[in-house]
């Protein structure tokens, strides 16, 4: 059944960390619109912040993030001046309105910042925004960057979750993706984080990488599990060389095919679950007492540009080049070019160059897609109660899929539309059936599994 499903719906589709997805953003949402959305935030609203550090001291061939390699620190120093300028402007516009409940440092490599710069950035954020006492602060860590001073700096800014990139521990795989990193090196950083009383550790793993096999993936998972992380993410490698030219360093002949990718993901997931972790959505896992697992059991799981999250904030403010923000009105994205971003934020400017304002239809479809990605199900009653006539319109599409599609994408269980277990690896393809932009769009995407 899964082989048939893979052939029928194992297509190239979006990852659905937003809806509408980023390729459909347009220049009609500009700095003036963004300023209005910031100024229109309601008093007492809850805010999440995302800070993008667009530099690495080496470039991993598998990476599809907006980043650039630098062997010198001067560009990073110049960039931080621009980032501070944007923080000051945005913080002033939301002053007295919102409270920051979550901060995520991503990249690139946030941990390539010098310790004193990381501490200064953390302090400037707290001076510019109103942080609640228990604000969650997560940082993406490249173990190759780390030393004792950087670990101390992350503790000083109040890091509550460390997210370590592992990808794979096999040397031949690491060489093929230009990411050499030993297990002992990773373990040393995990131990260092824990010794500083950071409460949560996440490990990111990948399947579908060059030269990976089912055995090698399971070996990496087994080693990662000995570190007893609170969470694990198991992503499929997205081979998009038309989007990221450095991925041409990875020969397609080295990559596992669709059937092998599916087998790798399923074997790895089973090994993680067998160790007591709960499966969260499509590709995350958490210990039963972790906040992510608790949110998933309560039907309160959400999805944003960092993946699955328990973060309930409606407003996400992106800071730095390429960063995406989410508001009640829609989405915004900053200029991708670091140089142009710097020019735009100088002297109190904003760097947004595109986005999209949500229609009523977008909100309905976005809710369905998020619930499918998070819960593999959604309630017809909830749909109509939330969205009225707009929700009723989407019920017809759902019913047609459940009752008449030859591939079992959805099943009707009482008032709930449910993705059957055998179809869950292909939930992105199922979500795409509700995406009105997908069929007419020209964007190219990664494979569904």
Describe the structure.
- There is one protein chain.
- The chain is 38% helix and 21% strand.
- It has 15 helices and 19 strands.
- The protein has helices at residues 2-9, 31-39, 74-94, 115-128, 148-156, 171-177, 183-195, 214-225, 258-274, 291-297, 338-345, 360-375, 380-387, 389-404, 427-432, and strands at residues 45-53, 55-56, 68-69, 98-107, 131-141, 161-167, 200-207, 231-236, 278-280, 284-286, 302-304, 307-309, 315-319, 324-326, 330-334, 352-357, 377-379, 411-413, 416-418.
- The strands form 5 sheets. It has a 9-stranded mixed β-sheet, with helices on both faces. Strands 14-15-16 form a 3-stranded antiparallel β-sheet, with no helix packed on it. Strands 17-19-18 form a 3-stranded antiparallel β-sheet.
- α8 (214-225) links the parallel β7 (200-207) and β8 (231-236).
- α3 packs parallel to α4 (115-128) and α3 packs across α11.
